[in-house]
Amino acid sequence: MSELGHAQRKVRKSDTRRERGNRTGFTTGACSAAAARAATLGLLTGQVPENVVCLLPNGREVSFAVIDGRVDNDGLERCAHAAIVKDGGDDPDATHGAHMTADVRLLPRRAGEIELRGGPGVGTVTREGLGLAVGGPAINPVPQRNIRDNVRAVGGELLAHDGLIVTVSVPGGEEMARKTLNARLGILGGISILGTTGIVRPYSTAAFRASVVQGVDVAARQGQTSVVFTTGGRTEKFAMRQLPELDEACFVQMGDFVKAAFQSAVKRKIAQVYVGAMVGKLTKMCQGLAVTHAWKAEIDRDLLAEAALAVGAPADLVELIRAAETARFAAERLAVLGLTEAFHRQLAGRAIRSLRACYPGTYRLTMLVCDFEGRFIVRVEEDEVLAAA
């Protein structure tokens, strides 16, 4: 889950003791895309369907029940309205049960254009560092693309001559947002529209940790001498591109469970450990955290500031980084100065030293670091870090 994704859920430590099932649910992004698709069909045909098939970002097609479907005449302009009730699965977060709503209307003489807006209950971005435009709606890039793809899939006839305005809203979203960390990140007035696959998987500590251990065990039983720990799907795809020579069994999504991953690798006497990460989780590893989920501990902003200073960032920027809420803020500001590689190399070196101190063993450690789009930034070997110490 990305840094913005963590803000969508504030988990009490005691929550992890509850029994949870394994039923998956759907993201706010997937439900918004389904609502937008249904409303577009309503604008096209004059009637919003009771069910709509939505294409998820992961390529799956899923049928959603539509509520509150209607086509209204707003003066001389027609508008279609549809909502999807968000099902968070067996581990619902603050948005479980939310009515993810879309209103679609024509954008005259702007053929093919799909303008995406945030309505009531969708947060507004007020700070840099989230990868979204300040002043715009808190709709993440993947959901933005997915909403447009679904609208385009059924709205061809309308888009041939005009554009479409799609307004996503969430009744009660502002109240839901109070149960999240959004305000701390500068997302005000509502929730975030999230999701890189469209699927919500239960955040079951025991189940996820067990799957990490199992992944290492499977690799070892197959005779693999390397494992590649990644923090999610995007970093796994990135790592696979960097290490095409390795068998698929070597790749284990450890998520937030650093301790479980490394202890399993040490126990199984894995010779080579790779870690694929982006700046947020990389910083958490520098901090020596056994679990890197947002509820466990915040980003160490002093650590980020020290790393920025070490690569030559000016003093005023160092202080801004020290006051910022996300690691992404530091990464984006330093990129403008051409310090991307140096900054991430500095963090990777610190992460290697921290991981080595926490989890001693005979393995060799390599850090693979990518940006928020999964593009390569730097590869850092343990040997070069220890040699420079």
Produce a short descriptive summary.
The protein is of the alpha/beta class and 389 residues long. It has helices at residues 3-7, 28-45, 141-154, 156-159, 173-177, 205-221, 233-242, 258-267, 279-286, 301-310, 315-323, 327-336, 340-358, 382-388, and strands at 25-26, 51-55, 61-65, 67-74, 77-85, 99-107, 114-118, 121-122, 124-125, 163-169, 187-188, 190-191, 199-200, 226-230, 251-253, 272-277, 364-370, 376-381. The chain has 2 domains: 3-200, CbiD-like; 205-388, Beta-carbonic Anhydrase, Chain A (3-Layer(aba) Sandwich).
- With strands numbered from the N-terminus, the spatial order across the biggest sheet is 4-5-6-10-7
CATH topology of the largest domain: CbiD-like
Helix content: 25-40%
| Uncertain segments | 1-20
Question: What is the topology?
Answer:
Layout: H1 3-7, E1 25-26, H2 28-45, E2 51-55, E3 61-65, E4 67-74, E5 77-85, E6 99-107, E7 114-118, E8 121-122, E9 124-125, H3 141-154, H4 156-159, E10 163-169, H5 173-177, E11 187-188, E12 190-191, E13 199-200, H6 205-221, E14 226-230, H7 233-242, E15 251-253, H8 258-267, E16 272-277, H9 279-286, H10 301-310, H11 315-323, H12 327-336, H13 340-358, E17 364-370, E18 376-381, H14 382-388
Parallel strand pairs: 7-10, 8-12, 14-15, 14-16, 16-17
Antiparallel strand pairs: 1-13, 2-3, 4-5, 5-6, 6-10, 9-11, 17-18
